[in-house]
Write a structure and sequence with these properties.
The complex is a heterodimer of chains A (298) and B (315). With 298 residues, chain A is mainly α. Helix content of chain A is 70%, strand content 0%. The chains are: A mainly alpha (298), B mainly alpha (315).
């Protein structure tokens, strides 16, 4: 609380509303040191993923018979794997698969789930009943098992794994968007918009959606953490990223066979998953405190 | 209350029907001829192909295929694994007790860690004990449990040599050895949801500690231990009981990778092996059974919630 006082006197005249909701949310977020740390770690991993071709010390898929399962050293900071590939380089490149899977599958889940949720919540009646029952049905299969089954039937590939995760994650967003839309439907501003003759789609897009963005953003951040674990799990089972392309999950799968000879193969990819998932969870918790005042104090 | 139960059941039936359509639809995702893919290595055998086509009625329209599939499902026939040459239902029944043992142990571990941690965390809110409990819970939720399993094998089996790295001994054969083979996977599974329990318990306790009856209890001079332990805890556990049944269902999902890591021949390993072998009827069957267990658990959760919360019974 101490650092959070609004700088009223110091506020420059160029900024008329120093205390806009966005600014207040930003200040609440920045007060959360752990959330800021989470954001920093996420940014670090995103940079690693983007810059992998330039910062990785070696080619991630180039095998070397003379350097098989070397322990960590100055030449290979994280050691080498069973084919003589540099583990550090593979961890850096693997960030691409993980972050891409996390971001793309959650984006797809949002694009899939939110329209249906809005439709159900705003229209009610049998449309709502049908959408809600389908959502219930999907939610009655645990997330990971649904994703595994979908990926198995779609066939092993990173794109299919992402699609499977997106479909499995979408019912949460349907439910969230539906609940928020139902709340918004009875508010005065939606009532006013309706009485002015706005068509339903316009009410949904212009009047309801912006108001439900904050909770969706919180849920999406936490869903990215879950999606990254799911991608690693699917790749671990051979249903995600295909060899020789690096992904943290498939690296752990290979590492399990050489646990006694080369434990470093198992340690670093796992630490990478842990750190990035932890960072997204911290970020999500911080965003919830900043954007969703009702959920505060939890 | 009976009306409520009826309405709840009335909700479950359409949900299960839609679920059956979705699970049936999985088949349609397969690229190419489903008979050829399902036959796998037996694809050269025309008799197997003919049998599969006849069983799935692949020559009939889609709705008829679904009707036949649902009809068999309602009779407890989950299909046939051409890879293992056994009905899927008997395969699942064979593996389920193993996972049940693992799940029970994991559940006990999760409650033993999560609930006390949540109580302590709420009682010492915003103090170091609370930060510590929250930090550990967050770390637990963020750790992929298959990696935790690998790390535990590395420490307790490879480095220290205390526990077997993999395998399973049935409880009936040698209880002690059975415990030794399941304690690590149970711990991995249990800690995965202990963090969730801790958060639920903490939130419920903080809610309960803000109630008037707690203030009354404090005002009349009861020791803090009695206030927290007797007055707040009993009420706080009501929502936790419901959530616990849902988490029990989530254990099934966690068991998939954990059993794979520790080579435990349970329900989870069954679906992984089925995925590796492209044994689609087994994958489908496992999803059906998981969903049934999950739906049953959430119904039990609701009933428990009513049982422990008399206010709802009257409604």
């Amino acid at each position: 609380m101490s650092a959070g006082h609004p700088p009223r006197a110091a506020a420059p005249a160029a900024v008329p509303r120093a205390d806009s909701p966005g600014r207040r949310a930003l200040r609440r977020f920045l007060r959360h040191r752990l959330a800021v740390l989470g954001l920093a770690v996420v940014v670090l991993f995103v940079l690693a993923a983007i810059l992998a071709p330039w910062i990785a010390p070696y080619d991630p898929i180039a095998t070397s018979w003379s350097r098989i399962r070397r322990p960590p050293s100055e030449l290979h900071l994280f050691g080498t794997d069973e084919n003589g590939r540099d583990v550090l380089s593979r961890v850096l490149w693997g960030a691409r698969a993980s972050l891409m899977a996390g971001a793309l599958s959650v984006t797809a889940a949002l694009l899939l789930g939110v329209p249906f949720g809005l439709l159900a919540g705003l229209s009610g009646g049998w449309v709502d009943t049908v959408i809600s029952r389908v959502t219930d049905a999907m939610l009655s299969v645990p997330f990971l098992i649904l994703a595994i089954a979908l990926a198995a039937f779609l066939g092993p590939a990173l794109e299919n794994a992402m699609l499977a995760i997106a479909i499995s994650a979408s019912p949460i967003f349907v439910r969230l968007a539906r609940g928020m839309a139902m709340e918004a439907r009875v508010t005065e501003w939606v009532e006013a918009a309706r009485s002015l003759g706005n068509p339903p789609w316009r009410i949904a897009l212009v009047h309801v959606l912006p108001n439900i963005v904050p909770p969706l953003l919180v849920q999406a951040t936490l869903a990215i953490a879950e999606a990254i674990i799911a991608e690693a799990s699917l790749s671990f089972l051979g249903l995600g990223q295909q060899p020789p392309n690096p992904s943290w999950g498939s690296m752990l799968n290979a590492a399990q066979r050489f646990l006694t000879q080369a434990p470093w193969m198992a340690i670093y990819p796992g630490v990478a998953i842990f750190l990035v998932v932890l960072a997204f969870n911290l970020l999500g918790d911080g965003l919830r405190d900043a954007l969703d005042p009702r959920a505060r104090g939890r | 209350m009976w009306l409520w139960l009826l309405r709840r059941l009335g909700q479950i039936v359409p949900t299960l029907l839609i679920l059956s359509v979705l699970i049936f639809a999985l088949q349609q995702l397969m690229p190419g001829d489903p008979a050829l893919i399902m036959a796998g290595e037996e694809r050269g055998d025309p008799q197997v192909l003919a049998e599969i086509r006849a069983e799935l009625r692949l020559d009939r329209p889609l709705w008829e295929q679904y009707g036949a599939w649902l009809w068999r499902l309602l009779h407890g026939d989950l299909g046939f694994s051409w890879r293992i040459r056994q009905p899927v239902a008997s395969l699942i029944l064979e593996k389920l007790p193993v996972t049940l043992q693992l799940g029970t142990m994991a559940f006990a571990i999760a409650i033993a860690i999560g609930v006390p941690a949540g109580i302590v965390s709420a009682a010492f809110r915003d103090r170091p004990a609370d930060w510590l409990a929250n930090g550990v819970a967050l770390a637990g939720i963020s750790t992929p449990n298959f990696w935790l399993g690998i790390m535990m094998i590395l420490l307790f089996s490879v480095e220290l040599g205390w526990l077997p790295p993999s395998g399973y001994v049935p409880l009936t054969e040698d209880p002690w050895q059975s415990l030794a083979t399941t304690i690590m996977p149970a711990f991995v599974l249990g800690t995965g949801i202990a963090g969730v329990f801790m958060r639920h318990t903490r939130a419920a306790m903080i809610g309960a500690l803000g109630q008037d009856y707690v203030r009354t209890a404090r005002a009349k001079g009861l020791p803090e231990r009695a206030v927290v332990g007797r007055h707040a805890l009993r009420n706080a556990l009501i929502p936790v009981v419901t959530l616990a049944t849902i988490e029990l269902g989530r254990l099934l999902a966690g068991a998939v990778l954990t059993e794979q890591i520790f080579s435990i021949p349970g329900f989870g390993k069954l679906i992984v092996d089925a995925v590796f072998n492209r044994d689609y009827p087994v994958v489908q069957g496992v999803v059906v059974v998981t969903a049934l267990i999950f739906v049953a658990l959430s119904l039990i959760g609701d009933l428990l919630y009513m049982a422990v919360n008399p206010r709802l019974r009257a409604a």
